[in-house]
Specification:
Layout lengths: L10 H9 L5 E5 L5 H5 L8 E3 L4 H9 L12 E4 L10 H14 L6 E3 L1 H9 L3 E5 L8 E4 L7
Parallel strand pairs: 1-5, 2-5, 3-4
Antiparallel strand pairs: 1-6, 3-6
Helix pairs in contact: 3-4
């Protein structure tokens, strides 16, 4: 165990997050997402599994140690609902609240069309698959830099 580290952040996830550089992306996806086949194309090559955990809780854990990129307008993204891209289902509302708490202000989750999301996730550094069973519990976050001391 480590002091001050969320217990959901296991060694594999911490290793991936530490290896990521400024501008690299992590996809945090639900249990329905084709994580294994998509992750085969990522830097890590396989999904990192956080089973039994909601999307919002996983995002909270990751953003407790990873800053979002402040050099781009949209460092936080969500998969759009097919046929209703403006819809924001409860799972996405919960993640929006977790993101806002982590950054200390409103940081909109920008919608990405479903198939464009799959393509972008395949280019991510890593894919973290959660136990989230609700549909559209899929997000991408761009890593930022730590502030100077």
């Amino acid at each position: 165990m480590l002091w001050g580290i969320d217990p959901l952040l296991d060694a594999d996830l911490l290793y991936a997050l530490r290896r990521m550089g400024h501008g690299d992306e992590i996809a945090i996806v639900d249990a329905n997402f084709p994580a294994a086949s998509t992750a085969a194309q990522t830097v890590t090559g396989q999904p990192i599994v956080m089973g039994g955990v909601s999307a919002a809780r996983a995002v909270e854990a990751v953003l407790s140690v990873m800053p979002l990129d402040t050099f781009v307008p949209d460092p936080a993204m969500r998969m759009e609902v097919t046929g209703d891209p403006l819809a924001v289902p409860p799972v996405q509302q919960e993640v929006q609240a977790a993101v806002d708490r982590a950054v200390g202000r409103r940081q909109p989750l920008v919608g990405v069309e479903r198939f464009a999301f799959y393509d972008r996730a395949a280019e991510a550094f890593a894919i973290l698959v959660t136990g989230e069973r609700r549909h559209y519990g899929c997000f991408i976050f761009k890593k930022g830099v730590l502030p100077e001391e």
